[in-house]
Amino acid sequence: MVPDGWKKDILGNLFEFKNGLNAEKEQYGSGYKFVNVMDIFGNDILVESKIIGRVQVKDKQLDDYQLKYGDVLFNRTSETFEEIAMAAVYLDKAVAIFGGFVIRGRPKTNDISPDFSAFMFQGLSFRKQVIKLGQGAVRANIGQKDLAKVDILVPSIEEQSKIANILSTWDKAISTTKKLLANSQKQKKAVMQQLLTGKKRFSEFKEDWKHVELGSLLEYKQPTPYLVKSTDYNDDYETPVLTAGKTFVLGYTNESEGIYKDKLPVIIFDDFTTDSKFVDFPFKAKSSAMKILTARDGVSIKYVFEAMQMLDFTIGGHQRHWISIFSNLKIAIPEIAEQQKIASVLSTADSEIKTLKQQLNRLEQEKKALMQQLLTGKRRVRMEAE
């Protein structure tokens, strides 16, 4: 259903599509700014200063591949279908060239404002359509012809402007929160560098520090009794299934047996990658390559975990690391009271970081929900004439 005062059209009627420049190897590295796929990811709005690469071009190439204010850039290919045709709107008048893995959409009409484009191509309807149109077995890709088939709802220019202004408010809040989060993470790293090396100490502690092997500080346990049997995860289930890698929480299971809750908190350690996570809640494990590490008597596991994050260790091939290598690495460690005080300071920093991450997630979810309402006309903005 088309909202009153809006129209439905296909992108092929609204944009002229063109693939980017495939330059010779020696052309790269200097010259004009050159937009590639990575410039599009994470940049709904793209300006010249955000573009990393450069390319030297001839006059004919400059004429053919120069961007104009309001051009929309889509990535043609990605590792997953969910990431094809991600869009960034070029809102700059500086000279820039777009690359061969990028499709440029140049407006044919004045029906869509550039500011609105920055949000329109984030909409759920657009994303669902391009994912469905994607092709490829090894890598997902999409071409100009398929992109041109996608239909969109187009409000009046006046309503577009109001929608863009509303959503820009959320973008500003998200941007501010991201900066606060990055600053808090940077501050924590600086504090870690001071406290975990003994460069800065609390005045009440005078005892010398020792250098002790991790294996003398931590005991390890195999995850076998706690491995999840089914990967039929659901966010409504209670028990998290963990990995020590970047994803951390893979999902939630309703399995009631084999839940680790014996001696918390613990460190979970990937025996192959040496990634680790601090865990202070009951969980199940996904991989048998995980080690569950617990503190020996007189040891703060939080302190040891933070010290482990500062170890300069290079992985040597595809092998298990804890028993033969990692447990033999040494960290500087004070007496238990000083360990606990340092751990407390770092836990306070963690709490601030966690709060900012939660705020960021809330803002992003609010923006997503608001976009779905505004870009479909389910929620209308009040116009001046009203």
Describe the structure.
By secondary structure, this protein is an alpha+beta fold. It folds into 3 domains: 7-154, Adenine-n6-DNA-methyltransferase TaqI, Chain A, domain 2 (Alpha-Beta Complex); 156-186 and 337-381; 210-333, DNA methylase specificity domains (Adenine-n6-DNA-methyltransferase TaqI, Chain A, domain 2, Alpha-Beta Complex). The chain contains 10 helices and 21 strands. The chain has helices spanning 11-14, 37-40, 59-65, 114-120, 124-133, 144-149, 157-195, 214-217, 301-308, 336-374, and strands at residues 7-10, 15-19, 28-35, 45-46, 53-55, 72-75, 77-78, 87-90, 96-98, 102-107, 140-141, 151-154, 210-213, 218-221, 239-242, 249-253, 266-270, 276-279, 284-285, 290-295, 330-333. The strands form 7 sheets. It has a 5-stranded mixed sheet. A 4-stranded antiparallel sheet has the order 14-20-17-18. It has a 3-stranded mixed sheet with strand order 5-3-9. Helix 7 runs antiparallel to helix 10. The chain starts with 6 loop residues before the first strand and ends in a 12-residue tail after the last helix. The model has no long low-confidence stretch (mean pLDDT 94). It comes from Salmonella enterica (Salmonella choleraesuis). Belongs to the type-I restriction system S methylase family. One of its GO terms (biological process) is DNA restriction-modification system.
